[in-house]
Design goal:
Blueprint lengths: L3 E8 L19 H6 L15 H20 L5 E5 L1 H8 L3 H22 L4 H26 L3 H6 L2 E5 L12 H19 L6 E2 L10 H7 L3 E4 L2 H4 L10 E2 L5 E4 L2 H8 L33 H22 L5 E7 L10 H14 L7 H4 L6 E2 L2 H5 L11 H4 L4 H16 L6 H11 L2 H7 L6 H18 L20
Parallel strand pairs: 1-2, 1-8, 2-3, 3-4, 5-7, 6-9
Antiparallel strand pairs: 6-7
Helix pairs in contact: 2-4, 2-5, 2-12, 4-5, 11-12, 16-19, 17-19, 18-19
């Protein structure tokens, strides 16, 4: 059987939609009040970690990705959309606030940056960037008229995930795992209809004790990181495994993924846009090599990198099997600006170079899984640092990890089942994002503030279960309960 490439895009954003109120009328003519919106202390944080984080992902990743997926042949990409992201996209008013951000805030922030420089190349790039945001606003409005952004993503979203993207092996009760899994699955089925059992394990974190619980919920397959077990580049990464309790485990192929995500991966090219260097108003106008960004040159490089990627994967699967290249969707466009163009190039090059593409659901019908080795059955793995759980429970984030488990155990020990408000706060607390941001030192004190806030709200919910906290009104509308 010919070898195949399975591109798996995991689409996720933590709960940052906070119902931030747009400033009152007259703001379009008051630029100081307009720009203060970015520092408005409402919702779940301020720029860049408030809900504008989600608006940026919509503009730079989800909208351009949808254009690529809509034009791609069926079965080219496996797309997962986390329930917590869908919760936010579905909530009334969220997309309208995103449109206001794109139509009002972004034009003014570009105007201010243009006024602050005399470099013609930087001015040209900022004007191009401003036009791109305006185009995103038009495309988003068109998507809304055509049924909505979430519905458009749902056309391609075959896989779901845990309700709030918890690291499942770190949960300490079967009730906690069931709450995350059943809630996520129920949300997917209500929104998108059919589901074949594909379930993105958050952070690719897996432990064999989870398998019977996931199988009971209907999970048939998920991705796992086994590089340390098999060895980098080992052909065993190209074969699915059958866990003892049923779900198929698809090893991700780190040798292939690192062509994109590794320290020397494609996004490091000097011609690509520098994600880390910002203008005053957080626009990116420089290339990694320090020169003003040249969009045309970067797109040409993305085409070359796409051709190189496909050629390398063809060689990798020359002996057969399925090469699973799993990436965070937000890497494409949001983090790696040219990433969506690279993906489009990969889809074209795969056809030109005769590399078969497949989804994991389709591949499951053609590739019989082998038994998982005993050491895979007993060891906990993830795609985090060290391929274990240290990113989310190591010494540097222990003060975040222990309160999560304590809160879960406190709810499990109660005689009466906790109400929906308390369960939603537990879900918000369990998101993997907070420990990741803290471990990587990417967001200052923001992740610790989120943990403290959800803990306080959970305790308040136990004291006054009928009082609704408006900040989490959109999280987990399909709450499975505490069974």
């Amino acid at each position: 059987m010919r070898g195949e490439l399975a591109i798996v895009l995991h689409t996720h954003m933590p709960y940052v939609e906070g119902g931030m109120s747009w400033p009152d009328g007259g703001i379009a003519g008051d630029t100081d009040r307009l720009m203060s919106y970015l520092r408005h202390p409402g919702g779940f944080g301020t720029w860049p970690f408030g809900e504008e984080w989600l608006w940026e992902a919509i503009a730079t990743s989800y909208l351009p990705l949808l254009d690529v997926l809509d034009a791609a042949p069926p079965g080219a990409v496996t797309l997962s959309v986390t329930p917590v992201l869908a919760d936010q996209l579905e909530h009334p008013g969220a997309i309208e606030r995103c449109l206001q951000f794109l139509r009002i805030v972004r034009p003014e922030s570009h105007r201010r940056d243009v006024a602050a420089t005399r470099d013609p190349a930087l001015i040209a790039e900022l004007q191009r960037s401003a036009a791109e945001y305006a185009g995103a606003a038009r495309r988003l409005a068109a998507r809304e008229r055509g049924g909505g952004l979430l519905r458009a993503l749902g056309v391609h979203a075959a896989w779901t995930s845990a309700a709030s993207h918890a690291v499942l092996p770190l949960l300490c009760t079967e009730r906690g795992v069931a709450l995350q899994a059943w809630t996520g699955i129920a949300s997917h089925r209500r929104r998108f209809g059919s589901w074949a059992g594909g379930f993105w394990l958050p952070e690719c974190a897996h432990a064999s004790w989870l398998d019977p619980l996931l199988a009971e919920a209907g999970v048939r397959g998920g991705c796992v990181e086994l590089t340390a077990r098999f060895g980098r580049g080992n052909p065993r990464h190209l074969r699915p495994l059958r866990s003892r309790s049923g779900p198929v485990l698809w090893p991700i192929d780190r040798a292939t993924i690192d062509l994109v995500w590794g320290r020397e991966g494609y996004p490091r090219r000097g011609v690509y846009r520098d994600y880390h260097r910002h203008t005053t108003h957080r626009h990116r106008a420089w290339a990694i090599d320090g020169r003003p960004y040249d969009h045309g040159a970067a797109l040409a490089q993305a085409e070359r990198d796409a051709a190189d990627f496909v050629a390398r994967v063809r060689e990798r699967v020359a002996g057969g099997g399925v090469c699973v290249c799993a990436l965070d969707t937000e890497l494409l466009g949001h983090w790696w600006y040219e990433g969506v163009a690279w993906l489009a190039g990969v889809l074209r090059e795969a056809q030109r170079q005769s590399l078969p593409l497949t989804t994991l659901d389709d591949a499951a019908h053609r590739h019989a899984p082998g038994p998982a080795p005993a050491r895979v059955e007993v060891q906990t793995t993830s795609w985090g640092e060290g391929e274990d759980l240290r990113t989310w429970s190591g010494p540097d984030v222990a003060e975040l990890a222990w309160p999560l488990r304590t809160a879960e155990l406190e709810l499990a020990a109660r005689r009466e089942a906790p109400g929906p408000r308390a369960l939603r706060e537990l879900l918000g607390l369990q998101a993997s994002d907070w420990a990741f941001l803290a471990h990587r030192r990417l967001a200052g004190d923001y992740p610790r503030e989120r943990i403290r806030g959800h803990l306080a709200a959970l305790h308040a919910a136990l004291q006054a279960p009928d009082r609704v906290d408006p900040r989490l009104r959109g999280l987990a509308p399909d709450l499975a309960g505490w069974g």
